[in-house]
Amino acid sequence: MSTWLDVLPSRERQKLREMRMRSPAEYAKLRERIKSVEQITEEMQYNEYVAELKFALATEPAVRDALKDRIADDLREQGIEAVMEHVPDAQRAAVESGRFTVSLESHPQTRRETLAVLPEGDIQETLPIVSALSEKYIQQFIQSLQNE
């Protein structure tokens, strides 16, 4: 029994083959998204440390307080615009005065885990910390785990 491809004229079969082929630009774009084994290993290691940080923030008040103090110090030294990505005026006073809690949340744009601040008050919206500072805090936590 023949397949439907055998019944098609050769010109039509060639068109079907060309449709399935990717252009060099599409192929290069697809290759960029493919990760190597080393990259996957590093990402898994990073995710493991982030999970440990999230657990520590939920269960150990000392870690949560130390991170909150470090963020509050950076807010005083560098200013709120340098530390936070976007702070609405209604929550600015609570953040500047240090009335907030720290959590690890998924960033709204990048979907990567980042530190966020949850101001006390009526509005319960998480405010992400600038990615560079968040990565710095996470790396410091990772180094403290590796030193123990």
Textual characterization of the structure:
The chain has a three-stranded antiparallel β-sheet. The chain is mainly alpha-helical. The mean pLDDT is about 80. The protein has one domain. Helix content is about 65%, strand content about 10%. The chain contains eight helices and three strands. The chain has helices at about 5, 10-20, 25-35, 35-60, 60-80, 80-85, 90-95, 130-145, and strands at about 100-105, 115-120, 125-130.
Provide a short characterization of the protein structure:
Helices cover 64% and strands 11% of the residues.
Please describe the structure with a list of short key phrases separated by commas or semicolons.
single chain; 148 residues; mainly alpha; three-stranded antiparallel sheet; 3 strands; 64% helix
User: How many strand elements?
Assistant: 3
Structural class: mainly alpha
Helix content: 55-70%
What percent of residues are in strands? 5-15%
SSE blueprint:
Layout: H1 4-7, H2 10-20, H3 24-33, H4 37-59, H5 61-78, H6 80-83, H7 89-96, E1 100-106, E2 113-119, E3 127-128, H8 131-147
Antiparallel strand pairs: 1-2, 2-3
